[in-house]
């Protein structure tokens, strides 16, 4: 450090020339970015929805090391346009029907801007009381909108927390019940703990269980069937649990899903929870995608039985206009969670915590540091209001219904499972393909053809959709929910799908 | 769903009235927020740095449930001003000297805006190629700036990833080596795995090890001493490891710290890594705070020996102008990491992944979903340039040196440990207190007095600083690094500290 010489005057001169938070420079550049993004949304349909670049494209366009000297924002934004945008898959495009939506909104964006602007680190109450208190308040607001049982709300002895993703929410709850159980049975029995999901449960469960140290051999996958619409069969779960007990294992954790990834199936919560209760199994309900729909009374029956589960989560960044990341987790017994995840280091000691008057959200999650995520949820709720939010969800559901109707009119296609929310699963019907060639008597060839169709559609760049494989069948998923999607986009998408199907069926090398 | 009736016209009318991503409404409201935040930075010194509200203050100010109808942004921003700002602890204030800085910047903010605006979910390459490729590129850029050994860069067979926080980075690396070891020794020996840190290691290590299923009994805390400046003594580590082996335990993971939380001590990497190597222990270097300083050549000697560690992380959101959250993790062997954390579900299958041509960052972290965090680091690097970033870091270090000089001139205070970076640890000297009252012969009373001083200063709202306790001694931490801090803020802060010390020493009820 011998090279450092204190010279406040020189340092101040330098600092004034570069002040990284100079309010007027912030204002000037901030406006530029707002305009840049507004123009981006205006022009978003010009870009191929799914990026068409080749692996390694960017390395060829950028220097090998960071620049020594500052570059103006104008130049950087040119580079964003020229180098980044072609490499972006446009999740905000109205023609994005892939995966599940990543629903952006002006309100969500503004909330995130405020959060980034304040840039507080809300690990405990005192580090920024508003961050903690607003989070508890909006989690109760949201819980009420969903008609979650009172026991999940702070006002009912439970409570909610904002996490990044479902995987983190699952990990936190698994660790909670793992610790409870290990205290009872002793650590030497760790490798007997069993986690249950179905073959439709999101793979995050397996990853979370694995990270928590559960033996991968003890990850039970309950098979589902088409007859049961790919939901977890309570009887199969019961048998699996009994079998584990017979083998000396210890059933620990069950994940039930409200809206599975492949087909948006809904596991029957009530009977599953009843079985779990009998054996002291913690039930987490993963409603990552479809949970948001439950703000509409007509979907709330799917929550029937959730009062007997232990935790419930949904991703507001999927279908609730809240931009990534915003996973809402509610638990019935916060003290169990904090018992597993709390830390009390000297450097964070403070009166409010010691008097037990406050929530310290670091004890509700994996990490110490946390952003002021509640602001974006608060802005979404206030800017749109409950009535409009319900109607927005309904408009997506209606568009999916409309799309389903279009498919039903074209006998070359089949709906694979009944639509529940705003996602439609379909494929080119094997009956039609069989008429084209006898090779399509084999399911594998039918799958290949449908995969080829998806690939052909996506490389057009006009729309983007993705697939699933359930019970050996390749299905095409059409998920509506991008905030800019209108009916006419759905109609055009359907035309694109038909055109590519035509090309493959009648002109291509089937 | 019987209540749903498809009527595209009505739905479209409704949608047009509320379109949550209407570009012109986005533009109008976006500009408002930019102005709101620019004004906030302009006026930030008007607010008490540490929030002075009482627990539960917000509940009294807001309704019990979300509004049914939309509220205009103007009203919401009024509420932010009236209800939120008093509850915010102003981490961006130039008078914030608490914890470690949460260094915001215009460039970091703009990068985050772009990321939120695009709102892509970059779990794998195809989901948004630019998000993955830019991340790899800036991680190599940053690694080169730090002069990290080539083996940590993609160009040298290693590689970097952006995570949320250090705790997540630690958890990922612990799980990686845990799995490696369990494959060798069998899961029945899980409870023999041992993790090592010192009494100065961040408590995130203990939490991460706990989440990964390491027996809390097997968390070894190597004691440090003032004589060793609170660094981990290689000899003590060696003895602890030998002892564990003697007892039949299996040494697994060591966390060495570059810049501890309490005193910014730097563990001696070279000898620690040598011991670890002998016993096959994974070494993670936690440089959360001080790592950023290593972009300056005069600090790079602290990295000496890091080539023998396995992973290295720093928080760009702490002292690298990148806003929360942005933890940079480099590993020498990415394949070990992905072996532990990869998942390959059908719904994400794609050609690029199958041809092994690309990075899928979901396999480098806990969660599936991930934001486009690389944009903010890229904007910071390009907007300021390496030379200015070094000088910004140096200006903070110089200010800390200046503050140290001020303390040295006032014999009532003592510097507790030599300053290394931009944080100064000090306290009212026990020698001075002893002259005031004989009760100060007891260390505990000296501690209490210093704690009282901190409390008195913080309740003034003029500046905010926090404390640490090392080896039984309560110390006051003065951490410089808020982006708006100038020399004159340091001078004023010193005056505030002196005034409160005077009041307590000479007018108060000592």
TrEMBL record, chains A, B:
This is Tyrosine/DOPA decarboxylase 3. One of its GO terms (biological process) is carboxylic acid metabolic process. Belongs to the group II decarboxylase family. One of its GO terms (cellular component) is cytoplasm. One of its GO terms (molecular function) is pyridoxal phosphate binding. InterPro entries: Aromatic_deC, PyrdxlP-dep_de-COase, PyrdxlP-dep_Trfase, PyrdxlP-dep_Trfase_major, PyrdxlP-dep_Trfase_small, Pyridoxal-P_BS. Signal peptide: none annotated. The keyword Lyase applies. Its cofactor is pyridoxal 5'-phosphate. It comes from the Eukaryota. The modification N6-(pyridoxal phosphate)lysine is found at residue 318. It holds the Pfam family Pyridoxal_deC. The keyword Lyase applies. Keywords: Decarboxylase, Lyase, Pyridoxal phosphate.
């Amino acid at each position: 450090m011998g090279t450092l010489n204190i010279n406040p005057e020189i340092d101040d001169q330098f600092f004034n020339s570069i002040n990284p938070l100079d309010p007027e420079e912030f204002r000037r550049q901030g406006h530029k970015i707002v305009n840049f993004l507004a123009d981006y949304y205006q022009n978003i349909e010009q870009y191929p929805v799914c990026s068409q670049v080749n692996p390694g494209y960017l390395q060829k366009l950028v220097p090998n090391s960071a620049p020594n000297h500052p570059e103006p924002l104008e130049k950087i934004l040119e580079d964003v346009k020229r180098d980044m945008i072609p490499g972006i898959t446009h999740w905000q495009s109205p023609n994005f029907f892939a995966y599940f939506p990543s629903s952006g909104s002006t309100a969500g964006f503004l909330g995130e801007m405020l959060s980034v602007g304040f840039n507080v680190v809300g690990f405990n109450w005192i580090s920024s009381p508003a961050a903690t208190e607003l989070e508890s308040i909006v989690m109760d607001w949201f819980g009420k909108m969903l008609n979650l049982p009172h026991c999940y709300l702070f006002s009912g002895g439970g409570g909610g927390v904002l996490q990044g993703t479902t995987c983190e929410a699952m990990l936190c709850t698994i660790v909670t019940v793992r610790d409870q159980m290990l205290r009872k049975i002793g650590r030497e029995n760790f490798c007997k703990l069993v986690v249950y999901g179905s073959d439709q449960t999101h793979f995050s469960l397996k990853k979370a269980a694995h990270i928590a140290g559960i033996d991968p051999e003890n990850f039970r996958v309950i098979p589902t069937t088409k007859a049961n619409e790919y939901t977890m069969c309570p009887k199969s779960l019961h048998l699996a649990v009994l079998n584990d007990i017979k083998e000396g294992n210890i059933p620990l954790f069950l994940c039930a899903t409200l809206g599975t990834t492949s087909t948006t199936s809904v596991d029957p919560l009530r009977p599953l929870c009843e079985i779990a209760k009998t054996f002291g199994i913690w039930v987490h309900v993963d409603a990552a995608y479809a949970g948001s729909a439950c703000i509409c009374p007509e979907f709330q029956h799917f929550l029937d039985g959730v009062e007997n589960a232990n935790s419930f989560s949904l991703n507001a960044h999927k279908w609730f206009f809240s931009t990534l990341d915003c996973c809402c987790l509610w638990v019935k017994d916060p003290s169990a969670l904090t018992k597993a995840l709390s830390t009390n280091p000297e450097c964070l000691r403070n009166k409010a915590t010691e008097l037990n008057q406050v929530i310290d959200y670091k004890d509700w999650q994996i990490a110490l540091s946390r952003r002021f995520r509640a602001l974006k949820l608060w802005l979404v709720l206030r800017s749109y209001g409950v009535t409009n939010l319900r109607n927005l969800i309904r408009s997506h559901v209606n568009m999916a219904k409309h799309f389903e109707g279009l498919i039903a009119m074209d006998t070359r296609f089949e709906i694979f499972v009944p639509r529940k929310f705003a996602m439609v699963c379909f494929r080119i019907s094997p009956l039609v393909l069989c008429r084209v060639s006898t090779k399509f008597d084999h399911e594998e060839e039918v799958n290949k053809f449908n995969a080829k169709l998806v690939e052909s559609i996506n490389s057009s760049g006009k729309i983007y959709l993705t697939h699933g494989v359930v019970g050996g069948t390749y299905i095409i998923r059409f998920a509506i929910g991008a905030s800019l999607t209108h009916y006419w986009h759905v109609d055009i998408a359907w035309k694109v799908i038909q055109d590519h199907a035509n090309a493959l069926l009648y002109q291509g090398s089937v």
